[in-house]
Amino acid sequence: MAKRRGISVKELNYKKKKLQFSHQDIESVAAKHKTPFFLYSEEILSKNYSTFYEGAKASGLIDPLVCFAMKSNPNKELIKILAKLGSGADIVSGGELKRALEAGIPANKIVFSGVGKTEEEILFALKLPGKGLNSFNVESLEELELINACAKRLKKIARICFRLNPVVNPKTHKYISTGNKTHKFGLLEKDVLKTLGQSHYWSHSQLVGLSIHIGSQLLDLKATKKAIQRLSEVGLKTKAPLEFLDVGGGLGIDYHPDETKKLPSVSTYMNLVAASLEKHFYKKTDLRPRVVFEPGRRIVAKAGIFVMKVLRNKVSEQNHFVIVDGGMNDFMRPSLYGAFHDLIPVNEAKAKHECHIVGPICETSDCFGSNRLLPALKAGDLLIIKDTGAYGYSMGSNYNLRGRPLELLIDSKNKLKVVNKAQDYSELT
Ligand SMILES: *Cc1c(COP(=O)(O)O)cnc(C)c1O
Fold this sequence. Notes:
The protein is of the alpha/beta class.
């Protein structure tokens, strides 16, 4: 039984004092593969997707579409697993579009988000056979003009969804908050409505949906509720026969044990979405648009851990540094946002040392945790960063000319699979 708070016994637990993840012994995995590496679990990923999708259905939403936010983790094997479960994709680049299609996600389950779609990316999407994408989630009037012009050239009709800026202020980190006026995302209501009477925007485009996405790592749903009300009101004002309302992603997870009690369950979230839409939209119209979701973090964060090896210790007066072989180039969230991630030793022992866990990168911010209480760790000992399945590998870089790390998957038969090889020096250009 795991004694530490915040470790779910099933996903991450000690067995004979050795840490297990999704039924695999981490030390045995590290004996066969060079650290550092990401280790993912198909079981947890599938369970998280199903909980989300089934939760949406259980709340009474008709024909929900879950479009996994690929930027959180675009690993091809993981996307294939989600595709088989019926997931769609929320993409933000031509690269992600190509990956989603290759992994088996049909175009009509793909929403294309982002403020900076290029002409090349728009043409790539418009050239897809049939009706093409579920939608371009449009963020500016110039973008709409460009998409319409591209569709005209190709003699196609572009399916358009406006991303509404609902002007709300979610309580989350300022760098991952996106739903207010000063943020670059979304269109204000007046700009959405202004386009509707203007035929030059719509010669080769059709308004099929309206979306919001107010931020990430949301634990307080007050702003979400308000934003869904705004989405509904503006949706009705468009008087368009909308096929879907897209409520975005952003549902958080408990990175810190203190967040566990605040964490909304999927069913709480779904009931809030369903009740808000019922009250502010469905009750007032005969239209029955389906609901689209764009979750990333909630689906994949807990399906991954990052495994590192201790290189050495260094003591500078009161400061005890444990230097590990993983760096901020592999996992950026702590250095980029000051994000908290639990650090757990692979060998169970009583915690007694206060230390700083730091990587090899030449930046002071290359630190995975300051003043953490951990057992004494020596060279060769293993340590994991918890909850790194989302915005982990996908945000990584080659900074300091380090190769990108290995990605491993524990598949549904509990077999270990390499799903992305580590880069070696010959691949660094
Ligand atoms: C990043 C992003 C998401 C996913 O956010 P999560 O917090 O990972 O759920 C969804 N939609 C859009 C438009 C995004 O930019």
